Q: What sequence folds into this?
């Protein structure tokens, strides 16, 4: 297996255009599109489109939405044996309200994330895995404390590379929550806002220095329309974003970046080249209404790298 993600999956209802004005009205005409979402789901769908074998460890409800999500993943080449079907909680649903500028806001029903468990990841499976990723670490209770560190350490011991992103932390000490897992990460890939919350620093270089000092192998800070900053302790660089004619929605751009970086790394691209590939992959997503609606092949993305 090229990539296994322990992460989130939900039904995304993308609603556009939305502004504060809608709260003053009884109704408003908008465009609504329903697509799979959640960081883990987005990453594996993008990875599969980029030619990787991919599997998701997550949870869905034993309901109509869960059945649809599983069918969608299978139809797009993602293995789903590690996804629990719960009778306790319904499938996660996220209302993604997109402003005319492309910025988005979320309303979520996500109690089922408490059911996500890495228990399907046996030693035999991990020994045959090239990349183990944790997507939305701060939303997966089973990985808090020693859970995430033990999983990542085992994966590396058995030969897999490890990568992780987080989401906004709802607790008071995000860096403290990360300290157990950072020494077991080959790549930590937060957004700028996430890295700001974690480190308290505004300079991406300083953000990376702090995270590297706690044992992480490489830090890649996603900078949105500015691209990204990479630092592995040996080399560092700002990688520019690929400009696009129109931003439709930024939903899932970070997940496309994440999957693109993993796909490029699996194919042996060096750090800065892999980051350029990831920026090109993210540029495709922002021109589409959903997190996984505009996925291209590896070769198509590589052609877009000539920016």
A:
């Amino acid at each position: 297996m090229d990539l296994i993600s322990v992460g989130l999956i939900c039904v995304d209802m993308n609603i556009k255009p939305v502004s504060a004005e809608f709260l003053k009205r009884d109704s408003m005409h908008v465009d609504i599109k329903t697509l799979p979402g959640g960081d883990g789901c987005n990453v594996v769908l993008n990875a599969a489109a980029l030619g990787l074998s991919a599997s998701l460890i997550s949870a869905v409800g034993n309901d109509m939405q869960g059945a649809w999500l599983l069918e969608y993943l299978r139809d797009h080449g993602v293995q789903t044996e590690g996804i629990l079907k719960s009778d306790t909680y319904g499938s996660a649903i996220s209302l993604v309200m997109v402003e005319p500028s492309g910025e988005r806001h979320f309303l979520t029903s996500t109690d089922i994330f408490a059911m996500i468990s890495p228990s399907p990841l046996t030693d035999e499976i991990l020994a045959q895995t090239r990349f183990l990723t944790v997507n939305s670490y701060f939303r997966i209770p089973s990985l808090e404390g020693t859970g995430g560190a033990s999983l990542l350490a085992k994966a590396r011991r058995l030969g897999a590379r490890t990568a992780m992103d987080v989401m906004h932390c709802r607790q008071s000490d995000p860096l403290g929550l990360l300290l157990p897992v950072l020494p077991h990460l080959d790549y930590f890939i937060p957004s700028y806002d996430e890295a700001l919350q974690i480190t308290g620093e505004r300079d991406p270089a300083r953000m990376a220095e702090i995270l590297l000092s706690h044992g992480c192998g490489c830090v890649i800070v996603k900078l949105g329309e500015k691209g990204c900053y990479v630092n592995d302790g040996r080399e560092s660089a700002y990688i520019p974003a690929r400009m696009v004619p129109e931003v439709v929605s930024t939903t899932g751009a970070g997940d496309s970046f994440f999957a693109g970086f993993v796909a490029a790394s699996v194919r042996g691209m060096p750090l800065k080249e892999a980051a350029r590939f990831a920026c090109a992959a993210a540029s495709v997503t922002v021109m589409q209404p959903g997190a996984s609606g505009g996925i291209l092949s590896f070769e198509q993305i590589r052609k877009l790298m000539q920016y």
Notes: The longest strand covers residues 54-61. The CA atoms of residues 6 and 57 lie 5 Å apart.
